[in-house]
């Protein structure tokens, strides 16, 4: 038996919004430690890794490991039926071929339940190596979303350069070029608004703008985003999900010689 209850179903809605443009379907791996999802996007350019810890749920029970293959468009339709204040419970039997979503209004005057068929998906688990990154940049997530959106109007690629002085985002294309620099904030009362940079060595890498804009769909989940970069390894874009977990996106840098790809 698997059962997970979240008083704030809005968190789950935001998680879905954060992944559904990259993934059409995905396997939710449920165990007694929580729910995990790991999948490449359909074009195999980026990887999404989601972790929701069991202790972050209001109630959580998972008697035996369960892998639920889920069509995310179908799940989105079901989540649209939930009010933002509704309490959500996900339930599935062991070896089930469906999962049930139950929504109850805060005053418990309305209860609804939706059953969704599960899919059999080929699972490809990619080992993500532990890496010590040359640069770890933390900045307000809304600022990062805006930078990605603004720069995507200038070119298909964004160069992210990190030095002791700060971090620079650059793009160039037919209409011209754009550069946005963020200096490290010296002292900020609000931690969420700070820009902090931990740097071992300088890094400058090029990434596809389109994917960065997909990643910023996770902005509503967290006031801060963390970018981890090292030469020749994928960029990690991480958003914390309240007290419950995190979502991480991995994106390989573009190779400069191969401009057309």
Write the layout of secondary structure elements.
Elements: E1 2-6, H1 9-19, E2 25-31, E3 34-40, E4 46-53, E5 59-62, E6 66-71, H2 72-80, E7 87-92, E8 98-104, E9 111-117, E10 135-140, H3 141-151, E11 157-162, E12 166-173, E13 176-183, E14 196-199, E15 203-208, H4 209-215, E16 224-229, E17 235-241, E18 245-251
Antiparallel strand pairs: 1-5, 1-7, 2-3, 2-6, 3-4, 4-18, 7-8, 8-9, 10-14, 10-16, 11-12, 11-15, 12-13, 16-17, 17-18
Give an overview in words.
The chain is mostly beta strands. Helices cover 15% and strands 44% of the residues. The strands form three sheets. Strands 6-2-3-4-18-17-16-10-14 form a nine-stranded antiparallel beta sheet. Strands 5-1-7-8-9 form a five-stranded antiparallel beta sheet, with helices on one face. Strands 13-12-11-15 form a four-stranded antiparallel beta sheet. Helix 1 (9-19) runs antiparallel to helix 2.
Class based on secondary structure composition and strand pairing: mainly beta
Percentage of β-strand residues = 35-45%
The low-confidence runs, each spanning 5 or more residues with pLDDT under 50, are: 257-261
Query: Per the principal axes of the C-alpha atoms, what is the gross shape?
Result: elongated
What's the helix count? 4
Main location: nucleus
InterPro entries: DNA_clamp_sf, Pr_cel_nuc_antig, Pr_cel_nuc_antig_C, Pr_cel_nuc_antig_CS, Pr_cel_nuc_antig_N
Organism: Bemisia tabaci
Function: This protein is an auxiliary protein of DNA polymerase delta and is involved in the control of eukaryotic DNA replication by increasing the polymerase's processivity during elongation of the leading strand.
């Amino acid at each position: 038996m698997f059962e997970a209850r979240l008083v704030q179903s809005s968190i789950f809605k935001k998680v879905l919004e954060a992944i559904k443009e990259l993934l059409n379907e995905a396997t939710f791996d449920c165990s007694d430690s929580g729910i995990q999802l790991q999948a490449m996007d359909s074009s195999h350019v980026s990887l999404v890794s989601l972790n929701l810890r069991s202790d972050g749920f209001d109630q959580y029970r998972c008697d035996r490991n369960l892998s639920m293959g889920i069509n995310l468009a179908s799940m989105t339709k079901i989540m649209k039926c939930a009010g933002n204040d509704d309490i959500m419970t996900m339930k599935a039997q062991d070896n089930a071929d469906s999962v049930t979503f139950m929504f109850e209004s805060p005053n418990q005057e309305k209860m609804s339940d939706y059953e969704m068929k599960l899919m059999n998906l080929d699972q490809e688990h990619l080992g993500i190596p532990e890496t010590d990154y040359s640069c770890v940049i933390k900045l307000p997530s809304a600022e990062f979303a805006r930078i990605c959106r603004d720069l995507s109007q200038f070119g298909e690629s964004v160069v992210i350069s990190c030095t002791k002085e700060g971090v620079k985002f650059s793009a160039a294309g037919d209409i011209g070029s754009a550069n946005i620099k963020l200096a490290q904030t010296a002292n900020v009362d609000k931690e969420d608004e700070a820009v902090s940079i931990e740097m071992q060595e300088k890094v400058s890498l090029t990434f596809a703008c389109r994917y960065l804009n997909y990643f910023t769909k996770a902005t509503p989940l967290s006031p801060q985003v963390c970018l981890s970069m090292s030469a020749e390894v994928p960029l990690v874009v991480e958003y914390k999900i309240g007290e419950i977990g995190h979502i991480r996106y991995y994106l390989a840098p573009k190779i400069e010689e191969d401009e057309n790809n």
